[in-house]
Amino acid sequence: MLVVGRFINGICVGICSAQVPVYVAELALAHKGGLVVGAPQWAITWAILITFYISYGCSFLEGTASFRAPWALQTIPVIFFFFGIFWMPESPRWLAKQDRWDKCQKILMLIHADNNPDDDLVRMELQRLREACDMDRIQSNVSFTELVKPPMLWRFHIGVFVQIWSQLTCINVIMYYITFVFGMAGLSGNNNLVASSINYVINVFVTIPALLYLDKVGRRPILLMGSISLTVWWFLCAGLMGGYGSSAPPGGLNHIAEESWSITGTPAKVVIACSYLVVASFAPSWGPVSWVYSPELFRLRL
Q1: Residue-range domains of the chain with CATH
Q2: What value, to the nearest 5°, has the Cα angle with vertex 54 and ends 51 and 58?
Q3: Strands, E, within 74-150: which ranges?
Q4: How many CB atoms lie within 10 A of CB 269?
Q5: 151 cis-preceded (ω within 30 degrees of 0)
């Protein structure tokens, strides 16, 4: 049942992950793209933090309720999400592409001008959409093959691989398995869980600078800074684990696994610190930028 549920959940999350950045990017004004499109990533960091503390609290429950309750509680935000979608406006860019200009104008007025039809910002945005639509009508046929042909191939490659490399920064090693890493470093029980929760707090608050400065600094410099810092902290973790660590005794370490690793003393403390710094490097860089950058690469008709 869990495997099937995970499969269905994966499909649904995949749909949302594909649609949300595009939808939000099309609602946002160009000069606020980084802030608005990066905001869902900040929401994700809050969700991870809240979910961790709910799970931590439920761990004190007796019996199967300790793991059934966190799963059940997930249905509450999903129900609000489902019904909330019915009140979401359509994307102005999509409406413009369908020549539904009256509806497009109403939504632009609603989200950008407090329903003021004479707002200059709305008029400018409408004019920009008209120009984009006129340009796209010159090449009206759209197919997937266009993405894999020059000149769009390079943009397509970047759009896909920015997302791929966002995952290959190995942030999920820290997000999913931080209790295992800290267990190898000698933490156990509540000490491990509380120390792990700090990770998720860092994730929430260090994302904020990216939202504030992404539109001022640019996407590429932030990705470069994030890549360099992630490289430093991961190499330190690997070097310390390899240089000062050793195989755990038979039966595993701190209830982790039978085949585990162990590191103690000052090197263990540095590994814990580097784990925090990995998150502090990812949160303001590859986390939000990977969502912001990809939707900005493609033309309206694509």
Answers
A1: 7-88+149-297 (1.20.1250.20), 94-137 (no CATH)
A2: 135
A3: none
A4: 14
A5: yes
